[in-house]
Amino acid sequence: PQPIYLADYTPPAYLIDGVELDFQLHPTATRVISRIRFTPNAAATSKDFFLHGEGLTLIRASVDGRDITPELVDGGLKADVPDAPFLWEAEVEISPEANTALEGLYMSNGMYCTQCEAEGFRRITYYPDRPDVMAPFKVRIDGDELVMLSNGNPVASGDGWAEWDDPWPKPAYLFALVAGNLVARDDSFTTMSGKEVDLKLWVRPGDEGKTAFGMQALKDSMKWDEEVYGREYDLDIFQIVAVSDFNMGAMENKGLNIFNTSAVLASPETSTDANFERIEAIIAHEYFHNWTGNRITCRDWFQLSLKEGLTVFRDQQFSGDMRSEAVCRINDVSALRGRQFREDNGPLAHQVQPDSFVEINNFYTATIYEKGAELIRMMKVLVGDDAYDKALELYFERHDGEAATIEDWVKVFEDSTGRDLTQFRRWYKQAGTPRVAVSEDWTDGTYTLTFKQSTPPTPGQDEKLPQHIPLAVGLLGPNGDEVQPTQILEMTEAEQSFTFEGLAAKPVPSILRHFSAPVILERDSTAQERAFLLAHDTDPFNKWEAGRTLAKDVLVALITEEDAPLDDYLNAIAVMLRDDSLDPAFRALTLGLPSQDDLAQTLFDAGVTPDPMKIYRAQQTLWQAMAEHLQDLLPRLMAEMEVTEPFQPNAEQAGKRALGLGLMNLLNRLDGGAAAQTLYDRADNMTLRLGALGYLLQAQKGDTALSAFRRQFEDDELVMDKWFSMQVYHAAPEDAVDVTDKLTKDTAFNWKNPNRFRAVFGALMTNPAGFHNASGDGYKLFADWLIKLDPVNPQIAARMSSAFETWRRYDVDRQAMMKAQIERVLATEGLSRDSQEMLGRILN
Ligand code: B3K
Ligand code: ZN
């Protein structure tokens, strides 16, 4: 497959004044009639008329009313057209039922729905399917369905038909259509200028009871975007539809967001606190896209982070405002490290603004999304909050209605602040996670911090230049008082020193507060200093970070040395847990240990070949030591964390449950599952029920609970996803592959459903000791299923192939076994472009 290059961008040859689409719905033979008014683009360099189209049966086409026979070519069609505005009409036939890739128009549970981003619209009709072609759409739907929806405002409807009108010019990737037997939760929102907007959350009959939380999250998001960004909603109606078969979380189609059921349906009995939090964030994210993505869209897919990085940053701000900012930041950074750092340090590393791609769907990555968000966060830190607000005002003013570029974005910051961001632009073009090594000096009352930055080579990019890094630093005195409040040090050189005068004694530095830049900080430090920061740092992020590095040092010692001193860690954790002034959610996070994958990468970076079993055992050893050390504390603290009020999915209650469950993880190692069983039996919400089930599985006492759980939730797909994933996630390393294999043979393993596939194989990816079992069976099973899934749903297969992205970290035997499996998948006849690109990059 041929790559597409950013450098080859040319403006579209024709622009569109308006689009009318008629759909005659039929499961296997839907007719789509398009009427498109084209105008030659004055800025174009070519006059060639090309429309994208894939898997379409062309019935007829005409130009200005005269029938024509277009030339059908690979990926679309060509035709001779006038050098003046003209009307294009075409009729095509498609089969939604045959569409298992879930891209374009497809059926899910008897209901029609669409997914067009990035290039799905070309599977619906012939069209210039590129984001810089924007047009208003009018849609008519004919069919037997009870509910028939599209973008924009409703115009009229009758028995068997409905018409929709979206006045805001949009690219085709934001088109949506939904039709089926649906029921709505209705609500409304009055905007800041007093306009009343209808809100509808559409679900299958039976799911109405799971819509209250999502609706509230939507209203909160609408309010927040007005208050914080001054952005008002711009149609008479905003709709969300929940569908079971969906490749990702959700999609921001103009006025008609389509959601994976897992990203919108919630109830205390069926959803965990983590589910509620994720749902709130995704609803906000998709809603925020209305301005950052839809009103201002991307010129081309190389600009993807323009909308995704910014919208992730906005949803992170929103969650921080709705919940605990500190806890959200810690979770966001953990996710960044877990997914983006992993990507950035392996064969799939790529720029936030890539130069080329083969399949754009492979670039909806943690780098485009989460690292992209970190770049915006850094810009805000560098220019300051007020200047950020002004820059955003200018961005909306200057680019509303446009398909913009990342360069436009950075320029807005330069123009509104007068700052030169030339060097900062490197963050968009240089892949890889910078390492920042710190050393300190204390001479004659002057304290000096010296930083050295370097970024390791990434595929296709050997040489790296210094980045512009905002380092938020504070200093603590020996008694724990802050002697220097947070200050932003701007690092621009490869090596740079900063001095602090007037200190009475050598301070302890707190560096990279609030995780002010997406870098790996390298600082040799003693356990005592880390414990000191855990006890005294005023920056909650760095306070947590101190605990995390302390734990990491202990785990690395457990893995690589005969003997590991645990006392400093155990005592520091005990002090932290006892500190009632700390938010339980914060304490729960600090009680957690770095993941097995994180440890594998840390060892690899230090030149040690990671052994997945040793990593697993070290974690178990440390949990056991913590349990024994803290056993007197557990009953009292667990009692304090009991929530006696009725369930609320808010941060306060969730924090208590998180800490309670974190402590039960320890107790479980002492009582062999007894407390977990009691909790399971009396749990009245999914957070506690699922937590208890996990601990029972861990204690190898889960059989009864598993059957009961299944009986109780058999008819609830989303809960059954949990039933599947828990078993794989909590399987002992030697059992994980067998458990996975057995689950794939379960009658409820509906593998064509992305949620179900991910429930099983995503869980195997997060059980590294199981996946990397020395037999190599995990690799083989995984590869078997990639081969099976690829022809059905290439997007998901390609995405899941990242299970193999870390293969070079491991010992020669494992490397050879993984490589053999990657090659086997790659050798599969007819392998999708999606998987070819991913596995090809992973291998090289
Ligand atoms: N923009 C969509 C993702 C589309 C993925 C296409 N493979 C959801 C989001 O980021 O909000
Ligand atoms: Zn998005």
Automatic annotation (TrEMBL):
Its EC number is 3.4.11.2. It comes from the Bacteria. Its cofactor is Zn(2+). Pfam families: DUF3458 (PF11940), DUF3458_C (PF17432), Peptidase_M1 (PF01433), Peptidase_M1_N (PF17900). Residues 528-843 form the Peptidase M1 alanyl aminopeptidase C-terminal domain. Residues 432-523 form the Peptidase M1 alanyl aminopeptidase Ig-like fold domain. GO terms for biological process: proteolysis. Keywords: Aminopeptidase, Hydrolase, Metal-binding, Metalloprotease, Protease, Zinc. Residues 92-174 form the Aminopeptidase N-like N-terminal domain. The keyword Transferase does not apply. InterPro entries: Aminopeptidase_N-like_N, Aminopeptidase_N-like_N_sf, PepN_Ig-like_sf, Peptidase_M1, Peptidase_M1_dom, Peptidase_M1_pepN, Peptidase_M1_pepN_C, Peptidase_M1_pepN_C_sf. GO terms for molecular function: alanyl aminopeptidase activity; metallopeptidase activity; zinc ion binding. SUPFAM superfamilies: Leukotriene A4 hydrolase N-terminal domain, Metalloproteases ('zincins'), catalytic domain. It catalyses: Release of an N-terminal amino acid, Xaa-|-Yaa- from a peptide, amide or arylamide. Xaa is preferably Ala, but may be most amino acids including Pro (slow action). When a terminal hydrophobic residue is followed by a prolyl residue, the two may be released as an intact Xaa-Pro dipeptide. Residues 214-427 form the Peptidase M1 membrane alanine aminopeptidase domain. Belongs to the peptidase M1 family. This is Aminopeptidase N. It comes from Aliiroseovarius pelagivivens.
